[in-house]
Amino acid sequence: MGRDKALLRCNSRPLVEDVAVKAASIAGSVTLIGRPERYSDLGFDCLPDLRSGLGPLAGIEAALDSGRGELNLVLACDMPGLERDWLSRLLSQARRTNALCLACRDESGMLHPLCAVYRSACLPFVRRALDARRLKLLDLLGELDAASLEIPHKISNLNTPREWAAWQHVGKAAGAADGN
Question: Residue 69: which CATH number?
């Protein structure tokens, strides 16, 4: 992306804040994982990765290691189209199942390990994967025998300036259609 995508503006606030506000409305509390000095002005608790430079898996480790809950709703900061209804269904289903992990599967069939609920019991699996430098999240979901929740829409992940520009265009068009 060339810059911190978490701080891109979405709905008049940083993208990470937009996602965090949605999560807080469902989960009750939010903790950002990343460099605390980068996000301290957003008003959310923030924890650093325990192992820097190892990507999203290290972030999941930090979240689970914090001991803040049995069920951990893990969301990437670069998913602006998440809907509260999906997140609520995801968390409710996770409460009703014994699955170690429950991840969203969108209408395209794509499984989203960064739109998922991880039980605290996933921590040893995450640590073993990090120790072995097996950093692919889909591999971890396979090891956890993750269950999935079908979402009847595409979940967008913004990783490039082109994807960000396309999302902004879609978001403005949706806002105009809604009268916003």
Answer: 3.90.550.10
